[in-house]
Structure formats: C-alpha cells, structure tokens
Task: inverse folding
C-alpha cells in the first residue's frame, strides 16, 4: 500500500525528534496504521545534526510544503504565530491535514484555523501543544467525553515546576534557582514566557475549550507568575501542610468558567504535590469518573515528538482504514501481530526481598549467604532484628538482580536448612526506572 | 438528526451507572457527537432502583437486543464469559457495534471476537475493561502510538490496593483488613479473583496486547496474590525505603515479553507508590515519551460508566461525522460551542495564604485581623515567628474561602498600615477535592 506522505516544517529540537521517532519506530508505526509513513518533504533553512535526513527532499521555503501536491499531512514545527499561521492556512487551502505542536498558534488563532479547516474538510491535530508527551487532549476530548468536566488543574510548565521544586528541596531563592535552570537549559535566556505563566496560559486556553466546549479565549486568562515566591513562603506553606505549585486552573462554577494561572498552595498529600522537577501533570475531575491524573514529560525533543507522531498516526489511520475499524481493535492490525514469545517466570530477572525466621544460633547466616553466593546471588542490604534469647530471629535481605530460577533454587536449599523455621517470604523488587 | 440507538444488556451496578451518565449528560454528549444518543432497548430480568428506565423498551432475554434491527450499538454489561460471549457474537452477526466492560471476556475470548467483528465490519470497544474510568487503552493504543513501549506496570485492582494501603497505614495483617474491605463492599464474599491476582491478570493481558501488538494470551500470565504478605514485610520494606504494591507488569525484554502479576517492592519516591486506597494507576515507559502515569478510579458504577459511555461516544462519532473531522477539533462540534462566560479573577473564590512582615509593636495584629473581619474574611490558621527585638516580624496566615475582590480590598487596606513593612505575599490555596 502507498505510504502516508508527511511534510515536516521546521527542523529544530522537536522537528529533529519527530524525524528520529518516525524513522526509529517506522515498522511498529506501519503495523499500527496499516501502511508506512514516509517523510516526503522537509522545510528547513539548514540541516540539524541531531537527525539524518539523507534522501529526503528539503526546501528552505516552508511554503513549498504547503503547496506540495504529494503531501497528505503537513507537520508545523516552526513555532511563532505569524509565519506559522500563514503556513497552516496555506496548507489547509491546499487540502493538507495539519499536525502542530504550537500552543501559541492554537490558543491565539485556533478559532480561525478550525473554521478554515472545516470549510476545506481537513483535520487539525495538536496533541503536542499541551503537556508535551502526555496524551491529555485525547484523554479530555475522547477518553473522558462521557463526563461533565468540573475542573482541570495542571502543572503545565516544566521550567516553573523545576524552579519551585529546587527552591523547596534546597531552601534556595527564586533568582538563584532560575540561573541554575538557565545553565541546565531548562529555562530560556528570557524566561518571561515560562515563569510569568504565559506558556501555561496558552495551554490552559486549549484545555478549557476541550473540557467545556467553549471557544479559545486566551486573552481572558488571568495570569500570575512565580518570580515573587520566596524560600520563606515555601517553608511557611510546608509548615501548614502545603506545597506551592504553579497551576493552570479551569473550573466550571455553574455561572461561568474560571481560567487562571498562578502559584497555588496544594495539600502535600494530593498526588499532584508529588510531581517534581521538569515533569508535567494534569488533574481532571469529571462528574462520572471523579478525580483523575495524567503525568509525564511536558517538553523535550522526543516526548513532544511522541505526541506529534501520535497525531500523524491518527490521521494516517483515518486516511487508511475502513469505517469498521478506525483504530485496530488491539491498536495493531490483526495481520501485523507479533509472534514475540511470552517468557516463563523462571526467565524473569529482578531484585528480590527475602524474609525468613531462623533459630538464634551460630552459623545460620553463613549457611544462607553461602547458598545465595553459590547461585550467583549477591546481597544489596540486610538486617537482622535483635530479639530475646531463644526467640526466632527475623532476617530480611534485599538482593541484586538475578534470574528467578536461580532465586527459586537457592530458596529451596535455604528452606531445607534445619535452622529455618517457617515459610520464606520472597517478594520481587522493581525500581520502575525509565 | 436521527439519534444513535444503543441497547444496554445488563442493569447491575455498571449498567445503571451507564444509564444515569447517558441521561444526566445527554446534552453535552450530543454536542460532542453531533446528534443525541438514545437508549432504545434494555436487557434485564428486573429493574434496578438505582436508575430510571421509564419509557425504555425492556427485554428479559438479552438476545432480543442482539437481534433488534433498531440498534446501532450493543453495550454488554452482563459479565461472565459464557452467555456474554454468545451474546456479543450474536450481536456482531447482526451487524451491531459492541461496547463491553468485560475484562474476562476480552482477555479469554477477544481473539475470536475480533475475528468475527472484522469479518462483519463492526467495531468492538472495551476501554472500561481495564482500570475503570482511566482511559488507559486509548492512551496506550492511540496517545502513545508513536512509541516503542518498553514496559507497563500498573496497580490495576482496587481491592488489593486498598488492603495493602490499610495494612501499611494501620500496621494490621492481611486477614483482618480483608474482613474490613468485605464489610465496606470493596471486596467480594469470595475475594479470590481480586486478591489472588486473576482480575489483574485479565487486565494485564489486554494492556500487553495493545502495548506490544501480541495476541491476547491470558493463560501465559504468571500470577501471585497478596494473601501471604504480612505486616512484618510491609514494615521491613519500609525500612529499606520501599513500599509493597500488587502490580501487573508487562515488559519487552528484547527476546520476549514478561507478563506477571505479583506483590512488588517499589521505591517510596516513585509516583506509583503514592497511589493509595481503591485508586488505580498505570505507568507506561515509551522510548520517545519516557515514563508516564495515568491515575483514577478503577471500579465503581460511574467511573466504569465513564469509560463505557466514552466508547459509545466514539462509535457514535464514527457513525455520524464525515471523514474530515472524526473527532471535532475541540472535542465539541463548532456549532455546539457554549457561550458560558469566562469569569474575571475578582469573581473567583478560594482560600488564601498571606505572608507579610510587620514592626514588632502592640496592636498590629489586631489591626490586620479587624480589616480581614470587616471584609468577611475568617482566618483558618496563623503563625507569627519569634524574632529578635526590633527585627521585622513575619506573619503568615491562611484564610477560609473568600471572593478575590474582598481579599484584594482587605490587602490594600493592610498594606496601608504604617506597621506593615514591605510587599504582602498573597498566594491562592486549592485543596483539589473531587
């Protein structure tokens, strides 16, 4: 089947991430859509060493893409609102479907863009414009579509969240942490957009429209930044049981919608309070589902590309499949299922927690550790509780990673030791590192 | 436009929740789809006082629905795998699209059901079968479709998580907490399905297929329950910096897939460790997006109905809209946007954190509290730090809920007091209660 032809306008951080994801996962993506994606045209003034575009047509003028009759989809990643707006409207005029990561463009010009797209019969997808890799617009507009949404509250600017997290963890003041964030590349030289909440206000505008079915109204968002927060405030909030987060909040009060971005005290025990560093998270409270939370990376080349390419896949599916199975039942097409084997539990490798009770006599621990070591199992941590004489002694240990089968054999031998008093508890350990 | 006609088979907890959500949010749902949903036929042996089905055709034999030529969609909520399988296959034969919340049915008979549906050209949607109201299948199969999924790890059984949370918080043993869970209605009289991990294994089977594009293979899931975990283990894990959760884990190791449900130690600082009580959460690690987490209610009438009705909306949209705009750009159709006003910040009501520095002299606090009280602002908590003589004294207070305008006026008056030394910090407080 003929590939879905995509043009990518802009080859900066997100553009190169998009090229890399489309190339690296080309096979899996084709299994999901039913046919391959081809990057047929790139619009960029210069190549980006972060990706390989050998053999792909490149135009310095991005408007060449808008007019390219070959393209099914134009991916707008040039940023800004002036040229980007013109580019998107020109591409729509030429019948291209649009994917964009541009929150300012959608928040400020979305109403006009959607009107034009509707007239021309094309789709506009912008999942990447809010909270980067988190599929939050899909969750809100489709996954939770049964609900009357009561409110949405999100940490939707990673720079601001990084700064507030550092201020809290290290007791340092705003200006100092901002410098560090700039050195690490988390904050721009001119940080206004992030720390004064304009970026978050763009995203909140989009979230609110999808939550409540209201037009995009960026100019009506109340916006307050975090630059006035002091280390003293963070400490005082903590004293009262709160932490300070920079939130975007959209709430249906029954007689109107609140749209506001500002520093906010939230109770330390709510999940949102545990979202730290550059990570983003959005809470949604729906009348049927209750409180939900969606967490992930809100920025960066590949997390943003994850959302851009998801939109490309969605449009690719719509251009490909029959009505009966718009999204394949199991995400991948039935004739493209993998025969990857399911491994038996003996082949699984992880760390283990082991707890047993032994008689308090010399040599028992030596026996246990010898058996473990014979099976190649090394101990990461251990403790043995002091108890009264002649009481069974609890021994608890954590091992390094080892195959399940080795652990099973070792535990069988340990269980056979005379000094081991009852069943041994064995629980697997996962650190859930990315 | 003629409504989308839906038949609901089964009027238990989830069935009545589905009726209630479809009725209560009928207007918003119609704005999302472009035409209304009509519950045209219910299959139930008896009415359920939890919902009102006046005027709706009811059949005691659910197979009447499968054969009803009026219906576009059959919603299967009878549970079990024998009759449910036959019902779904019969409805597919008669050209109905299917929505189901039945994890056992999909995990054990999904491959055959999808084959039949594909041949007949109908869709089968089952978002509610995994993690209740969390739109996790959509996130995995669509929102994160650009990624090669590395692993999925989830708390996907609320009963088990409630028991482990109680054991940890109260230092109590399994058997005792299980009884409490049964009394609260969180655990069945026969709790095997939940606490031995069979329910979680059904859900993991479905998650793994969508993550990796492998056929549903329920029989290959390794399953271990939580009934052997003791209070001693939970305490020992805590000592090492871990907490114990009952996880379903699906991992692509590169030479096969691990599918396993078992108690797991996870570091206390990962977000999943903060998911407590009956709540569910699923972590997904994708090669582009990195770690993500999706949190919400995993069971209950309306959270499950939220997912059932989202699937009905999705099918309703597919049956309604033209290709250009399968999901409306902003979730709601352009001609159905709300004119709900956006409120000014002065109309917003919330609690406030106030921090200021004052001269250490008699009467200052009295002045401040008088101004607040004149504006109807009451103080929830307050502290004043001891400092050396003649130093500025920091005063921090938290108020009860009050309109922004009243607070602004009060703060203007307080700022004008001679004893108030510098800018007053005012931060809004949100408890994020559902």
Result:
């Amino acid at each position: 089947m003929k590939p879905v032809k995509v043009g990518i306008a802009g080859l900066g951080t997100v553009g190169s991430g998009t090229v890399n994801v489309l190339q690296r996962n080309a096979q899996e993506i084709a299994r999901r859509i039913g046919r391959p994606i081809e990057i047929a045209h790139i619009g960029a003034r210069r190549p980006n060493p972060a990706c390989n575009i050998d053999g792909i047509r490149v135009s310095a003028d991005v408007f060449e893409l808008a007019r390219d009759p070959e393209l099914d989809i134009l991916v707008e990643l040039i940023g800004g609102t002036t040229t980007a707006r013109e580019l998107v409207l020109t591409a729509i005029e030429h019948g291209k479907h649009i994917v964009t990561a541009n929150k300012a463009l959608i928040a400020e010009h979305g109403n006009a863009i959607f009107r034009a797209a509707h007239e021309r019969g094309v789709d506009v997808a912008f999942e990447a414009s809010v909270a980067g890799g988190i599929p939050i617009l899909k969750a809100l507009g489709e996954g939770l579509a049964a609900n009357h949404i009561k409110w949405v509250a999100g940490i939707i600017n990673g720079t601001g969240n990084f700064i507030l997290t550092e201020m809290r963890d290290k007791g340092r003041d705003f200006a100092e942490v901002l410098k560090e964030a700039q050195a690490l590349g988390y904050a721009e030289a001119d940080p206004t957009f992030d720390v004064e909440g304009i970026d978050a206000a763009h995203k909140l505008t989009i979230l609110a429209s999808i939550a409540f079915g209201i037009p995009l109204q960026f100019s009506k968002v109340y916006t307050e930044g975090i630059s006035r927060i002091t280390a003293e405030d963070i400490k005082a909030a903590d004293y009262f049981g709160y932490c300070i987060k920079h939130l975007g909040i959209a709430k249906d009060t029954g007689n109107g919608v609140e749209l506001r971005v500002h520093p906010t005290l939230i109770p330390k025990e709510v999940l949102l309070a545990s979202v730290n560093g550059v990570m983003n998270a959005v809470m949604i409270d729906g009348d049927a589902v209750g409180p939900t939370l969606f967490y992930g990376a809100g920025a960066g080349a590949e997390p943003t590309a994850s959302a851009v390419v998801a939109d490309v896949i969605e449009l690719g599916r719509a251009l490909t499949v029959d009505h009966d199975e718009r999204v394949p039942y199991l995400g991948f097409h039935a004739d493209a299922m993998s025969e990857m084997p399911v491994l038996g539990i003996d082949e699984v490798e992880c760390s283990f927690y082991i707890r047993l009770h032994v008689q308090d006599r010399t040599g028992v621990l030596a026996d246990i550790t010898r058996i473990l070591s014979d099976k190649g199992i090394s101990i990461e941590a251990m403790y043995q509780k002091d108890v009264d004489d002649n009481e069974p002694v609890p021994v608890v240990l954590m091992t390094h990673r080892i195959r399940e089968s080795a652990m099973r054999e070792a535990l069988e031998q340990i269980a056979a030791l005379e000094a081991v008093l009852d069943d041994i508890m064995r629980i697997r350990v996962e650190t859930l590192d990315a």
The first strand of chain B starts at residue 4 and ends at 9. Chain B has a mean pLDDT of 93. The first helix of chain B runs from residue 13 to 24. Chain B touches chain A through 144 residues (CB under 8 Å).
